[in-house]
Every structure is written in C-alpha cells, then in structure tokens.
Amino acid sequence: MKSRYGLFLVAIGISIMCLGPWIPVASATVSEHEPLDLAKRMAITSMKEWRVMGPAKDRFQYELGVFLRGIELVWKATGDKSYFDYIKFKVERHVMDNGTIAGNYNFTEFTLDNILTGRLLLTLYRQTGEMKYRTAAKTLREQLRQQPRTREGGFWHKLVYPYQMWLDGLYMAEPFYAEYGTLFHEPKEFNDIASQFIIMEKHSRDSKSGLLYHGYDESRAQNWSDPKTGRSPSFWGRAMGWYFMAIVDTLEYFPKHHPKRAHLLAITHRLAIVLKEVQDSKSGLWWQVLDKPYKKGNYLESSASAMFVYSYAKGVRKGYLPKMYLSVAQKGYVGIVSNFVVETADMGVNYTRIASVGGLGGTPYRNGTFEYYISEPIATNDPKGVGPFMMCSVEMARV
C-alpha cells in the first residue's frame, strides 16, 4: 500500500503534468517513495561513494561540509546512530587529538569555503563533549575575526579574491557563525552576522527582477565586475541557493528579539517571492541561469532546485515564510524526484544533473557570463547536489 505522502506526490505530479509536456528521468516507482526513504537511500549511496573518493574531494572544505550536513539531517530524522558514527569518522580524519585541523586547512588563506565543515564540529562537540572539536571550531571562529573585509564590513570570499563578496560565502560562514555565537554566548556578534546578509543583498540585488547576482567586487578591478555596480553578469541558480539556505539556517540561531532579525525575515520574503516567479511552470524546477529559461544551452539544474525546496520547506516549517509557499516546495520536490533521481541495483539512488562547479575569476578565468555557467561539466552524485537533496528530502518529510 502506498503511504499517504506517496499518494500525495502522485496527485501533485499529475497536476504538474497537466501544465505541459515533460519527460521524467526516474522511474515512476521512485516518485512514489516517501521523502525520508529517499534521503536514506541517497545517504547509503553517497556514503559508499565518498569512501573511495580521492583527496580532491575528501578535504576539510565546503563539499565535505554540505555532504555531511545532509547525513546529519538524516541521522536526526531517523535516530540511526550509524549516520552519526559516519560523520564522526569523516571529521576525525581532519581533526587531531589536540584540536588542530590537519591536511588542506590553512588559516592564512582566509577562505570562507573552509568554515562550513565547522558546523559538524559543533554537532560533534554537543554530542560528545570532546574538547578537540571545540578547539577546532575556535580556530574557525578566530579566522572569521581576522577575515579581511570590504569597507562596509563584508567578508572577502577568499584572500585570493580580494574585495569580493559571493553569495556562496554566506552559506559557508554565517550558519556556523550564528550557531557558534549561540553555543558560546557571543550575542554581540549577531549584528555582524545580519550585516553580512544585508550588505550582500544591497550590492547584488537587481532592482528590476529581484534576483541576486552571483558576486560583487568592491574594487571593480575584476573583468567580470560591472564598472558602475561591481556586480557579476549573471543570476546563477546555485549561488542563490547557497544564499537562501544560509538565511533560513542562520535564522534558526538568531535571537528572536534582536532588532536585525526583521531585516533577515524581510530578505527571506523577497527571496521567496522572486524564486517562485522563476520556478519552471512545467517541471517545478529551476534553471542553471535563472532568468534565461529557454536560451539555448540552459538546463534545469538539480543542486539549486534542491536548495530552493529545502529553503522553502524549512522556511514554512519554522514560520519564516507563509504557508502558501509550501506548494512551491511540493511542486519542486515532485520535479526533483521525477527528473533527477534514479534508482540503483543495490536499493540506493543516484542524483543527476548537478552543475559540477561555478565561480568567478581564477585560472582559467571565469567571467560569470551565461556562456560560462552552461559550459561547466554536469555531474552525478556530486556532493553539492547530494547534500541538498538529502536536506530537502528530510524537510519535505517534516512538513
């Protein structure tokens, strides 16, 4: 017998298909599974794959962090200790007994990408009380204290990207910053945390569409930056996904009576409105470049779609967004399962159509144009898609 949620997914799927033709990638049976079951199956597949990934992926940086964040939510939803043990195993490969973060981590590089995995340090400290996790987390907190900033106080994305703020950086740093501030009693820092979101939105938001450009260069020195605004040229889906997830995760730790909480809630509402407008009406998904849905080469992209579904669902569940936005999440989730999820022979699932990377500047130079974003490889089971898929599946199960 199908679960009530499984029947609900089928009903929603039928209503979406009535909007126009679409071709599901996954089998019909997958779309009838409950979200938590899919999250567990994705965890099984990704945990196996991550064990054999090379050093380029298995580093103390954001890909590990977002992948393990998905595993963490599956653990909390199921109570199955094996997921927690896996998180502990993966993090302990990088944290020494004295709390030193080994391997690729370099404090003086001042890259926000390395902060994200700190959220798992806080989880492990809460659960075990072991001081090595607190010591390692303290190192990351000290990095934020010394992080180079724009004139307005916004964190540089990395030392090698001077005077630049990227939407990605908000997810890398702010949820950790907020959770650390709550756990270790740093209430004054929440002004700074809110300011990071406010500064980023101020400089990246397009007044006409409401969408956010991927990056902002205060110096206007980069070839990708507009000489008047400092903005990069395009609205990249996953960049807005990072930002949307960042704000709903940060609000979870933000003091309820803090005067700047209202600013964050207002940003959350603006994001919800504009992303609903660019949701694909046929599939319920979102495009790699959000404002050019039918331009040749553009495609429906799975990591951004999962990030948006997660953010809408959590936003509704936590009361940050009105309940009407649950339908946006439901429509998106049906599209995700029908288009991106493929069963494996061992009862796991693969998550497909993930943009493997997206950035600005660097070598070879990434100019932030539409042509650049559609040129990057498309991957299956990349952690930047797998983690958010587990996260959005757990959130859909909760709501």
From TrEMBL:
What GO terms are given for molecular function? hydrolase activity
* UniProt feature coiled coil, ranges: none
User: Which is one Pfam family of this protein?
Assistant: Glyco_hydro_88
Question: What is the name of the protein in this document?
Answer: Uncharacterized protein
Q: Report the InterPro entries cross-referenced here.
A: 6-hairpin_glycosidase_sf, 6hp_glycosidase-like_sf, Glyco_hydro_88, PolySaccharide_Degr_Enz
Task: Give the keywords, sorted.
Answer: Hydrolase
One biological process term from GO is:
carbohydrate metabolic process
Organism of provenance: Physcomitrium patens
Keyword flag Transferase = no
